[in-house]
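Slide 14.
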Amino acid sequence: MIIVMKPRATEKSIERVVKKIEKTGMRVHVSKGTERTIIGAIGDERLLQQQQLRSTEGVEKVMSVLKPYRLASREFHPENTIIDVGGVKIGGKKLVVMAGPCSVENRKQIITTAKLVKKTGVEILRGGAFKPRTSPYDFQGLGEDGLKLLAEARKLTGLKIVTEVMETEDVALVARYADILQIGARNMQNFKLLKAVGKIDKPILLKRGMSATLKEFLMSAEYIMSEGNHKVILCERGIRTFVEYTRNTLDLNIVPAIKKLSHLPVIVDPSHGTGEYEFVIPMSKAAIACGADGLMIEVHPNPEEAASDGDQSLIPKRFENLMREIKPIAKAVKRDM
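Slide 15: predicted structure.
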């Protein structure tokens, strides 16, 4: 249920409504916008006397939330959510680029890459310490040693770190090192893991599953938010279709669709979305043009020798070109770089 307060509702009026909701045992979420305060009541709506709420001083209207994803819904939170990652704001006017290798392979590789992407204006370093692979014989990542190398790269460059967590048992470990915890496409509906990251106070980058609908994607975000962590960043990384000439089909339709239905920030991963480095730059431009809040790009100093995803990784020179070429697109859609 959503309670919309009048434009000049006092703090006392807001507190009075909050207490009425809390008395029923329902959870409360208060969203203060520039003009109005929205109060969300989460739980069994039958416990609330809607007429009593409507007659409470300062209340403008009371509405039921029609979407199954309540906390992620724009009905619940009309204004865009901006997530602050140690001073790097995701979801605001400035576009954010996350860049780095698919996997952390060794110290030289990750430190070199971090310094290279830092020079282009990147603020967040990506790199996998734990890697979910289709084949059990492929490189699975360095584990905690990889996390330590990422932390060293952060210390040397000042870049924030985003890296994947795959198991509920590893959430606390990864959270000690990472600034943003990534939930990969294969774990988008791992509800136990979603609940686990929902209990920590760190931003979560949630990647869309390979065959997930928009509703399923937002419901996965709802799992995280329902546990108390509202710092969720959505990531479109391509879906599986009949197309055979790219690794996945990058579904850019979903970006404006999410913007319509949800307040959460959205970034696009054209590296996984296409699987081919030649397509990364044009699809990055398209992602920005359709309203994405940022990009996630795979960069490797020597893709031919990459332990994973070399085909879709940009060499530093191509990445520099990408950062230069997306600036006029950003300007055209009134975004900063």
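Speaker note: Residues 244 and 304 are 22 Å apart (CA to CA).
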